[in-house]
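yo, DUF883 domain-containing protein is done. seq:
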Amino acid sequence: MASEDQGTMKSSSGMTGTSHEAVDRAAAGAHQLVDKVAPAVDKVQSTLSGASEAVSSGMAGFEDARQRWMESCRTCVTQHPLTSIALAAALGYVLSCLRRR
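structure:
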């Protein structure tokens, strides 16, 4: 049941011919926009992926350094227990004096 209304045709879905054209133009414009933006999105994704890998690698380096430092401290405390206790007491005293200010 199509009827003419001011020069436009209504389809069975209730949309006029000009409405279909407007939707088609909007869809075509959206497709063109996606085609233009896609390379930039790919470039950003690639850059972020590389940055993520660099951060992960850096974090692994920090973790290795932390483990080496902890092992070094553990060895030092084991080899010099009295000196370690004296240093800890002195550090505690200095920190408590600074906190009182």
